[in-house]
Specification:
The complex is a heterodimer of chains A (106) and B (119). Helix content of chain A is 0%, strand content 50%. Chain A is mostly beta strands. The model of chain A has no long low-confidence stretch (mean pLDDT 97). The model of chain B has no long low-confidence stretch (mean pLDDT 96). In chain B, strands 2, 4, 5, 6, 9, 10 and 11 form a seven-stranded mixed sheet that branches. Chain B has a four-stranded antiparallel sheet with strand order 1-3-8-7, with no helix packed on it. Chain B is mainly beta. The relative contact order of chain B is 0.32. Chain B contains no helices and eleven strands. In chain B, a hairpin with a 4-residue loop joins strand 5 and strand 6. Chains A and B meet through strand 5, strand 9 and strand 10 of A and strand 5 of B.
Chain lengths: 106, 119
C-alpha cells in the first residue's frame, strides 16, 4: 500500500501567517485529497484533485504538487483554520491517509 | 443532501465481534456510490476498512480481510460493519462515508461512533 507521510505533525501559526503542510507518498500518485477535521467533528473534504477547493473553502487555501510530493498552503492564517488536516490518496487500493497535521493558533 | 449516521455499541469485549450500522438518508444506497467504513485510532491514524458498492460488491482492506464483513439492507437504506475477533487495538472512532464512483475521495461522512474494546 502507499504510505503517506505528513509534515510537520504539529504546527502553531499566528493570524496572518503563511502555513504550508506537506504530504509525501511512498509511490507516485495521480491526485491528492485533503480533509479538515475539527475536534468532535467528522472530516470534511477540503481540497480535491490536488488543487481544487471544496465547496465553501476560503480561497486563502491552496493545494499543489505532483508525483510523490504534495502540499496544502494557507496564505494568511485565520483563527477558524485551527484544525487537523489529513491527506489521502486513492491512486491505488487500499486508499490511505496521512498521519495528520495539527494546526494550532499561536 | 446525503446524510450518514452511525450507530452501535460503544463497548465491545476482546475476542467478540464489533457490529455497526450506517443509516443513509437523502440518497438510495443502490444508486451510484460506494459506501465505506473508515476508522480513526487514538493518536490520529486513519484507516480505510472497506466498502460495499451500489451493486452490492465489496472491497476490503487486505489488512482486515480475514476479519471484516460489510453488508447492507436495501429496504432500510442501511449498510453494516462486522469486525470479528476484536482486540484492544481495534479501539477507534468508526465513520461511515460515501464516495461517488468517478471520484477518489470521500464526500459525505457520518459523525462517527467511538468504540472501545475492553473487558
Amino acid at each position: 500500500e502507499i504510505v503517506l507521510t505528513q509534515s510537520p505533525t504539529t504546527i502553531a501559526a499566528s493570524p496572518g501567517e503563511k502555513v504550508t503542510i506537506t504530504c509525501r507518498a511512498s509511490s507516485s500518485v495521480s491526485y491528492m485529497y485533503w480533509y479538515q477535521q475539527k475536534s468532535g467533528a467528522s472530516p470534511k473534504l477540503w481540497i480535491y484533485d490536488t488543487s481544487k477547493l471544496a465547496s465553501g473553502v476560503p480561497n486563502r487555501f491552496s493545494g499543489s504538487g505532483s508525483g510523490t510530493s504534495y502540499s496544502l498552503t494557507i496564505n494568511t492564517m485565520e483563527t477558524e483554520d485551527a484544525a487537523t488536516y489529513y491527506c489521502q490518496q486513492w491512486s491505488s487500493t487500499p486508499p490511505t491517509f496521512g498521519g495528520g497535521t495539527k494546526l494550532e493558533l499561536k | 443532501e446525503i446524510q450518514l449516521q452511525e450507530s452501535g455499541p460503544g463497548l465491545v469485549k476482546p475476542s467478540q465481534s464489533l457490529s455497526l450500522t450506517c443509516s443513509v438518508t437523502g440518497y438510495t444506497i443502490t444508486s451510484g456510490y460506494d459506501w465505506s467504513w473508515i476508522r480513526k485510532f487514538p493518536g490520529n491514524k486513519m484507516e480505510w476498512m472497506g466498502y460495499i458498492s451500489y451493486s452490492g460488491s465489496t472491497n476490503y482492506n487486505p489488512s482486515l480481510k480475514s476479519r471484516i464483513s460489510i453488508t447492507r439492507d436495501t429496504s432500510k437504506n442501511q449498510f453494516f460493519l462486522q469486525l470479528n475477533s476484536v482486540t484492544t487495538e481495534d479501539t477507534a472512532t468508526y465513520y461511515c462515508a460515501s464516495r461517488l464512483l468517478q471520484w477518489d475521495y470521500f464526500d459525505y461522512w457520518g459523525q462517527g461512533v467511538m468504540v472501545t474494546v475492553s473487558s
